[in-house]
Amino acid sequence: LKIKNIDFGSREIIIIAGPCSVESREQLLETTKDFVGSGVKILRGGTFKSRTSPNSFMGLKEKGLKLLKEAGEKLNMVTITEVMSQEQLEIALNYVDIIQVGSRSMHNYPLLTALGKLKVPVLLKRGFGSNIEEWINASRYIQNEGNPNIILCERGIRTFEHATRFTLDLSSIPIIKNRTGLPIIVDPSHAAGDSELIIPLAKAAVAVGADGLMIEVHFDPDSALSDGKQSLTPKQLKKLIDECKKVALAVDRVIDPQDKT
Ligand code: PEP
Ligand code: MN
């Protein structure tokens, strides 16, 4: 799957990074200022937020999309944001390159069907209460309407374990590869819910064959309006990429083909 200069499912492992939520121009600027040349290929930023509590920050919506587009252009990077409805989709299509379907929307069949009628690349996250077969079926709602441009994203499932926010099901990566021809990436941030766990889980994801990683980053995680606890600082992101590069090499993959080190 090719999106501009990005080739999902190739030998290259694609790094998607950015804040959980777009909060302000300054926040995007501070968070992304070292992205160029770092190995990050796609800028993420939530603008329509799917929050567990209705009292939480709900995102800047179209204003956030404008800031995300501006930041993406400045960095010369592909952008991605989540939508939860067809109404939000119509708006987001004017601003981003990839549409994210969040874990809580995996079963939103009208949304999946609407995405299937377009050619826009879709990142389909696994529902945290869904098994692999249900997840693959959700992808077919998009595929069957004629849109083959799908990337799957494992982001953890609910189990009895409470030491992590969700349990990262890394077995889904080889299973998805065997059962579908779709690229699959891993989001260790939402699975772990704890910044301390992100680097080891990201390395494991690379080792098991993930085609990419989605990492939440914030220049000041303590002040983040959402998911600060699991957000890496830009410095920690650099460490993650450095460590993942070594694992990538061991499994005959590469994180940044331009990197000659
Ligand atoms: C997100 O990526 O910000 C998000 C809300 O993730 P998930 O849908 O996996 O919870
Ligand atoms: Mn988040």
What report would you give on this structure?
The protein is of the alpha/beta class and 261 residues long. 36% of the residues lie in helices and 15% in strands. The protein has helices spanning 25-32, 62-75, 86-92, 109-116, 132-143, 172-179, 188-192, 195-208, 234-250, and strands at residues 2-3, 6-7, 14-18, 40-44, 78-82, 98-101, 122-125, 150-154, 184-186, 212-216. The strands form two sheets. The protein has an eight-stranded parallel beta barrel with strand order 3-4-5-6-7-8-9-10, surrounded by five helices. Strands 1-2 form a two-stranded antiparallel sheet. The two termini are 27 Å apart. The model has no long low-confidence stretch (mean pLDDT 97). It binds phosphoenolpyruvate and manganese (II) ion (MN). Phosphoenolpyruvate binds next to loops.
Salient structural properties:
261 residues, alpha/beta, eight-stranded parallel β-barrel, 9 helices, binds phosphoenolpyruvate, binds manganese (II) ion
What is the strand arrangement across the widest sheet?
Answer: 3-4-5-6-7-8-9-10
Can you count the helices? 9
Tell me about the largest β-sheet: 8 strands, parallel, barrel
Principal-axes geometry comes out as globular
Helix percentage range: 25-40%
Number of E strands = 10
Name every ligand kind in the structure. phosphoenolpyruvate, manganese (II) ion
Strand content: 15-25%
Short description:
With 261 residues, the protein is of the alpha/beta class. Helices cover 36% and strands 15% of the residues.
Topology:
Elements: E1 2-3, E2 6-7, E3 14-18, H1 25-32, E4 40-44, H2 62-75, E5 78-82, H3 86-92, E6 98-101, H4 109-116, E7 122-125, H5 132-143, E8 150-154, H6 172-179, E9 184-186, H7 188-192, H8 195-208, E10 212-216, H9 234-250
Parallel strand pairs: 3-4, 3-10, 4-5, 5-6, 6-7, 7-8, 8-9, 9-10
Antiparallel strand pairs: 1-2
The chain binds phosphoenolpyruvate (PEP) and manganese (II) ion.
